[in-house]
Amino acid sequence: MLSKGLKRKREEEEEKESLAVDALWLDPGHAAVAQAPPAVASSSLFDLSVLKLHHSLQQSEPDLRHLVLVVNTLRRIQASMAPAAALPPVPSPPVESSMADNLLASSDAALSASMASLLEDLSHIEGLSQAPQPLADEGPPGRSIGGAAPSLGALDLLGPATGCLLDDGLEGLFEDIDTSMYDNELWAPASEGLKPGPEDGPGKEEAPELDEAELDYLMDVLVGTQALERPPGPGR
Amino acid sequence: MQNSNNTADIISTVEFNHTGELLATGDKGGRVVIFQREQESKNQIHRRGEYNVYSTFQSHEPEFDYLKSLEIEEKINKIRWLPQQNAAYFLLSTNDKTVKLWKVSERDKRPEGYNLKDEEGRLRDPATITTLRVPVLRPMDLMVEATPRRVFANAHTYHINSISVNSDYETYMSADDLRINLWNFEITNQSFNIVDIKPANMEELTEVITAAEFHPHHCNTFVYSSSKGTIRLCDMRASALCDRHTKFFEEPEDPSNRSFFSEIISSISDVKFSHSGRYIMTRDYLTVKVWDLNMENRPIETYQVHDYLRSKLCSLYENDCIFDKFECVWNGSDSVIMTGSYNNFFRMFDRNTKRDVTLEASRENSKPRAILKPRKVCVGGKRRKDEISVDSLDFSKKILHTAWHPSENIIAVAATNNLYIFQDKVN
């Protein structure tokens, strides 16, 4: 936080220095942007946004507004960097490259899909929270039952009147519940952007464009998220 | 005013009741503190009624969600008063997940002279009772009790950001990031979902609900704002699920001000109907806007709260200040609007004279009954003696929550864990 009278310290992360440059670049008073918004964002702004996204998703219960705003901003930045992303991907992962370069080298679709899959995971976590505790204990510890219980809770709690409000009938009640979070194979490298779910097929043609290092990074983010949010095992 | 460094004391909401006699605050520790205005005595005509603590109670406790293995914060997000209908006072308080209806009542008499119990409440042996007497009520020291009358739980998957009491006084709504639910005060085990913007596929999520409020007079009408800077007005008579709005308020983006942060700074953090019900006011990161309900394509008035921050957006994004959610309030006659800023500054805009003022809520600058001095932020060039430069602003001192007495010029300003109450100067 900027505190009273305190300038940013030089020993803080180097990206703050480059951000000072960005601030100048993004300053509407700056000659280059006075007429039109900057065409290309610096990679440090991109890095910062990715870090924020990562940090936000690591919260056990992310602030949805913050998450959505960061994702939208990241998409905007990414869109402005699109010409760079069209470059041929780096053939072998350079050891020292920043994560931004890795992500830039991957396809737009893969990045969108990875962010999308992170949002999707979030919805699965949130959707399960409605179950009152007794219902969570019912049935075998199989995950699909664990997925179904919250919907019963939702039906009970929202009352019979809610049924009239749903145009799509019972289907709509199960919207929140998606057991694919339990079905996904985290370690399957072939699926497009590591999207959870059985539909690995369509993603296979995207796979060759993802480097191992990029996949590792994406998987780390996902596994990090999953590890924090993995529900309690059987017996609870 | 509390003077503590405990984060649990950080005030998270401030609200006057409908007469202005009571002022409630909620804090991060789940407590509610209610202040009551002193009755003006005949002997001290010139001394305006001051606010003293009336009741303090723990509204919400931290809860544990076993399914997700996480704690639900006890922080009070909003308090809303119900209009007074008998001797007791009622208010709604909410944290991220659960709304509670509290009854605050006074007790100044107690019964004495029970037959079957002694003065300490112990049962007496009936065999020892030889005469019967009628218990009498005797005066006692005033005691104010708060009791939870209703608990409205398990209806929100996401975090509740708003509650609003309907003008029918029978229903209220609670809004979270993606849904708005309608409740009847008497029924706690069911609520009607009236708005649902959750996409079928969460990958398509690009917008969340940020605030919602009922129209002050039309019980079928409400508005909700979004993270994309839009406001939707809905009519509950049109359909049970108000997914289609009746009116849609959005100002086109100013192309000369476009930046990567355009969306974030357009995100509306608060929406309030005017007392008249003819206007709505919205607060986004840099401005306050007044909209006429009959004109959807742009606001009728725009006030710059702290435009000098426009060139600092990148830093404010980096330190997350750009995500701060400021509230805004109308005065009783809808002629002045007020909102907070950084460095413990708050701003008032007179809609008629178009004058505005910046004031500061801080111990150093205000002794009791001292007059607040207008402040000014210097944006560049030579800084005058009393001005403060943008780079010296303290961004950790933010005034997010303020309230205005419904009929008088009394305002309550929450500065982190301190509450300031300012009144008009008495002649």
Automatic annotation (TrEMBL), chain A:
Cellular compartments per GO CC: nucleus; sarcoplasm
Region (Disordered): 189-211
UniProt feature, compositional bias: Basic and acidic residues: 197-207
GO terms of biological process kind: negative regulation of cell growth; positive regulation of transcription by RNA polymerase II
Record domain SERTA: where: 38-85
PROSITE patterns: SERTA
Coiled coil: none
InterPro entries, per database record: E2F-SERTA_domain_protein, SERTA_dom
Entry protein name: SERTA domain containing 1
From TrEMBL, chain B:
Alphabetic keyword roster: Repeat, WD repeat
A Gene Ontology term for the protein's cellular component: protein phosphatase type 2A complex
Keyword Electron transport (UniProt): no
Domain of life per record: Eukaryota
Molecular function, one GO term: protein phosphatase regulator activity
Family: Belongs to the phosphatase 2A regulatory subunit B family.
Protein name: Serine/threonine-protein phosphatase 2A 55 kDa regulatory subunit B
Provenance organism: Aotus nancymaae (Ma's night monkey)
